[in-house]
Amino acid sequence: MSTSVLICDDSKLARRQLARSLPDDWDIKIEFACDGVDCIKQITKAQPEILFLDLNMPEMDGYGVLAAMKDQGLDVLTVVVSGDIQPSAHQRVLELGAIDFIQKPCSPEKLAAIIEHHGIRDRALRERLSHSLGEQVDPDVRDIYQELTNVAMGQAGDLLARLLNVFVKLPIPNVNVLEVSELNMALSSVDTNDTTSGICQGFIGGGVSGEALLLLNDSSFKEIASLMNYEGELNDKVELELLMDVSNILIGAILTGLSKQLDMTFSQGHPIVLGQHRDVSELVQSNKSRWQRTLAIEISYGIENHDINCDLMLLFTEDSLKTLKFKVAYLLED
User: Fold this and answer.
1) Is the pTM of this model over 0.90?
2) Distance between CA 75 and CA 98 in Å, rounded?
């Protein structure tokens, strides 16, 4: 299935140049918008997955488009392509929700580097997968799961913030029903260009069981060690200890927060190392026998002003779904 791309620029020449600069091996369907007003109409109508956006345009400029998208909840991966190279312009578009800024004229090599750096192809596919799978979860039930997780992940984020003396960015949890073959595509915050280390920990209680999976980009270890005042040399053993410390905090707090809200007690198994310094797909593939079809709740933690990102995913067994639905049913009653 083709990825839908929208190119918005008031110059026909610029639109065509950018379209010709996109990778030849990328299966895409391209649409064009000639100004900001047209862009918002196209986004609302066609719902593109990726937007390449100019800044200086009549009717509504790129800043106005980004602000309108934010106000209207239009979620599109947006890369700004502009001749305005002021640092303040770059910063402003990022604050408004763009994922990157490319200076005009944009060469195919530069554009390919941006696409690869952000994993834009994979991210678009994950968004499509998320919307498709999300239809399998009743909206009211999904809302309950998200709210329960919001409370629990807030407690976990607070513990991590206190430990590292940082501000932890809390996301909106993703709730989907997944097949194991789709699991690696659902891990949205893990950089597919970076190797990853992971830990899995089982839990069970009150008719509900599953596993908590925590993945941390290897590039995060240096900053975590610094924040934890570790001054020695980083090696596999030290990184594993740091990974264990982070997973103990996040997994323990999440499960405690959920168990209190669901009025059940979870017993936790011993953490199991899924692997170190490996691609996400390799970690999932080598451990796929551990998981089947599952309710997955994904939480992507980030730390402000630090290159630290980790994915925490709760994988509930299919047998647990009936119990979970029963537990939350009373919350939906009038």
Assistant:
1) no
2) 10
Give helix 236-262 / helix 321-329 axis angle, nearest 10°.
50
Buried/exposed code over 186-215 (b: 16+ C-beta within 10 A; e: otherwise): bbbbbbbeebbbbbbbbbbeeebbbbbbbb
Answer yes or no: are the C-beta atoms of 168 and 161 closer than 8 Å.
yes
Q: Is the pLDDT of residue 175 over 70?
A: yes
Q: Which amino acid is at 260?
A: K
Both tokens assigned to 282: 């390799």
Give per-residue pLDDT as tens, 135-167: 455 676 777 888 888 888 888 888 888 888 899
Residue matched to tokens 């030290």: 238
Cβ-contact 249, 282 below 8 angstroms: no
Strand partners, 6: 31, 51
Instruction: Dig out the tokens for 323 from the structure.
Output: 């119990």
pLDDT in tens, 230-252: 888 889 999 999 999 889 989 99
Packing angle, helices 108-118 and 12-21, rounded to 10: 60
- Percent of the chain that is helix, strand, coil (3-state, to 5): 50, 25, 25
> Within the chain, how many helices (H) and strands (E) appear?
12, 13
Closest by CA to 251, choosing from 312, 168, 175, 317, is: 312
With residue 52 as reference, give the H or E element that holds it: strand 50-53
